[in-house]
């Protein structure tokens, strides 16, 4: 009886280890295609369209020994080491915060580009500096948190990150600065004594990584509800859906259109990760057209990874491997997308 109990206990411990123990890696798998009109609503917008614009997702899971073993033998899953997913000193909470910020920025850029293309009114407001993560051993450790917005420094209102950089660059080691931060819509005053930034060349600062926080108001109003989708890769498809509802025409020409790519403020389409998995998901979900960023591969990128290839090249290779009939289209800018759709014959 004791021997049998011991075997059961060992088996349970082994099962728990295989299924629950977190390794320093992630598993990326094909996600799904989602009709962007489910997330975007333009006030009094045109929604009477035959086709759809669809954003693509991937599934990112922290690897366990069992998931790692399964992914190792699955050609449609990718094992990614922790340091290729997270930034230096970034914990899981900070990673999730950064992904949500990237998504918020992609929505801003989508609105900015779509309304610019449509020739409609918008107004941009700079709200301060958004903290992405706090360096261990830095001046702000234990005082400032990822997700905070710094809105005031030493009594001076901060709107853009250049203003924060200018103030801090003039300060000396051990100088005290008074910050006003917005944390979950509550204004807090925090005092920070500056010190050398960890792993820097002796520069003095707060020891944080940050970006700008800004918002955009448009006329007509646009509501985007995509809080559960992280990262910037849906930016292009958000832009196209907003334009599609703003304009009194069906840009899709009746097709199931998918795509991916970061939407930059200048209208260029930026490189993203996981495009192979997105092509697989798009084919599985019946997409007919897939827009892929045709990004330039720099010398620095090749030095870091000699096997690197453009998003478009990787998408074409995956499409050929799975034998899809879906059309993969290279795009460098949103204008490339609109030109392709304009020339496309309506689906019969």
UniProtKB/TrEMBL annotation:
It catalyses: Hydrolysis of proteins in presence of ATP. Its EC number is 3.4.21.53. It is an enzyme of class 3 (hydrolase). Residues 225-344 form the Lon proteolytic domain. The keyword Hydrolase applies. Residues 99-183 form the PDZ domain. Signal peptide: none annotated. The active site is at 233, 278. One of its GO terms (biological process) is proteolysis. GO terms for molecular function: peptidase activity. Keywords: Hydrolase, Protease, Serine protease. Belongs to the peptidase S16 family. NCBIfam families: SepM_fam_S16. This is endopeptidase La. It comes from Lysinibacillus louembei.
């Amino acid at each position: 009886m004791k021997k049998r109990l011991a075997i059961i206990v060992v088996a349970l411990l082994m099962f728990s280890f295989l299924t629950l123990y977190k390794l320093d890696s992630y598993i990326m798998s094909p996600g799904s295609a989602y009709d962007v009109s489910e997330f975007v609503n333009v006030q009094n917008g045109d929604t009477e369209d035959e086709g759809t614009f669809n954003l693509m997702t991937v599934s990112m899971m922290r690897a366990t020994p069992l998931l790692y073993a399964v992914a190792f033998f699955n050609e449609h899953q990718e094992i990614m080491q922790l340091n290729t997913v997270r930034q230096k000193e970034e914990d899981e909470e900070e990673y999730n915060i950064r992904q949500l910020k990237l998504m918020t920025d992609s929505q801003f850029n989508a609105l900015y580009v779509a309304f610019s293309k449509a020739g409609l009114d918008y107004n941009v407001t700079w709200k301060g500096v958004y903290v992405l993560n706090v360096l261990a051993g830095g001046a702000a450790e234990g005082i400032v948190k990822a997700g905070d917005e710094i809105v005031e420094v030493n009594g001076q209102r901060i709107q853009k990150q250049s203003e924060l950089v200018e103030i801090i660059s003039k300060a000396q080691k051990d100088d005290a600065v008074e910050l006003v931060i917005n944390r979950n819509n509550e204004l807090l005053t925090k005092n920070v004594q500056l010190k050398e930034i960890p792993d820097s060349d002796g520069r003095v600062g707060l020891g944080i990584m940050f970006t700008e926080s800004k918002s955009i108001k448009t006329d007509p109003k646009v509501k985007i509800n995509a809080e559960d989708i992280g990262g910037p890769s849906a930016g292009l498809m958000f832009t196209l859906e907003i334009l599609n509802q703003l304009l009194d025409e069906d840009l899709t020409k009746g097709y199931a259109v998918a795509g991916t790519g970061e939407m930059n403020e200048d209208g260029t389409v930026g490189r993203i990760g996981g495009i192979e998995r997105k092509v697989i998901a798009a084919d599985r979900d019946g997409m007919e057209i897939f827009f892929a960023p045709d990004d330039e591969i720099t010398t620095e990128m090749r030095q870091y990874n000699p096997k690197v290839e453009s998003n478009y090249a990787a998408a074409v290779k995956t499409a050929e491997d799975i034998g899809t009939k879906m059309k993969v289209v290279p795009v460098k800018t949103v204008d490339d997308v609109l030109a392709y759709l304009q020339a496309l014959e309506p689906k019969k």
